[in-house]
Amino acid sequence: MDEPDETQAMPARYARRAALPAGRYSLLDPAALRERQGRQRALAQMLARHGEDHATLRLTEVGCGGGGNLLELLQMGFAPEHLHGIELLPERHAAARRVLPEATTLWLGDACMAPIAPASQHLVLAATVFSSLLDDAFQQRLAQTMWQWVMPGGAVLWYDFTVDNPRNADVRGVPLARVRRLFPQGQLSVRRLTLAPPLARAACRVHPVLHTLLNTLPMLRTHVLAWIAKPE
Predict the structure, then answer these.
(1) Residue 161 belongs to what H/E stretch?
(2) Host H or E run for residue 81
(3) Cβ-proximal residues to 120 (8 Å cutoff; 6+ apart), any chain
(4) Is 100 exposed, middle or buried (0-12, 13-18, 19+ CB in 10 A)?
(5) Residue 63 carries which DSSP code?
(6) DSSP classification of residue 228
(7) Sheet holding 105-108: strands in order across?
(8) Which pLDDT tens digit goes with each residue over 13-34?
């Protein structure tokens, strides 16, 4: 697969996800709710540790989907006019536009073509994006583009899973070694999160407390949240 085909393949991959059981990612699902809450807590702690006034920070999210992550950042104190989202799929872009403030800029299309000035962003967010990109060269090009946007002293915020899903050929895990190759100049601070989703769903069917107990074991967590700092 060459680079131009990667963006062309994405609509079909996401269309196949529509065949998954209804409500799997809804916050009304106990496992999905716990995954979201765990990630929110970890992200809030990571942002607080860097101790800046979030209202002044400029952040761009690559693959913003329906705008859920940007809404969370607004609740954490980011200013709408300093948030930007990029989405490849028109229906997801339209969904984000419906829920986000008009002051938040949204672009439709290939992130590598977005009109973002080099070194203009304090933070660039990619959440479960690279695991959906199956071409190594395209991954590398996108990572380089994101890194160019980050100003010295800023960071890439990364959330993705590290292991393959044998039931889904449309995704692949991104191990930490790969993350380091994508951002060779970055200084990584990493937290392992998220109980393996099949295990999380099974545990919640038994009792939510079982999910909490299993999630205390790092070996059962499949995702990482990383702060990839750009040296000043």
Answers:
(1) strand 150-161
(2) none
(3) 58, 149, 151
(4) buried
(5) S
(6) E
(7) 105-108, 83-87, 59-62, 121-127, 150-161, 221-229, 187-195
(8) 777 776 666 567 788 889 999 9
Instruction: Tell me how far apart the alpha carbons of residues 210 and 96 are, in angstroms, rounded to a whole number.
Output: 34
pLDDT tens, 57-79? 999 999 999 999 999 999 999 99
179 has a pLDDT exceeding 50? yes
Give all domains of the chain, ordered by start, each with its CATH number: 3-11+25-58+120-229 (3.40.50)
Q: Is the pLDDT of residue 165 over 90?
A: no
Mean pLDDT across 44-65: 91
The half-sphere exposure of 197 on its side-chain side, counting CA atoms within 13 A, is: 17
Q: Identify the burial level of 31 via C-beta atoms within 10 angstroms of its C-beta, where 0-12 means exposed, 13-18 middle and 19 or more buried.
A: buried
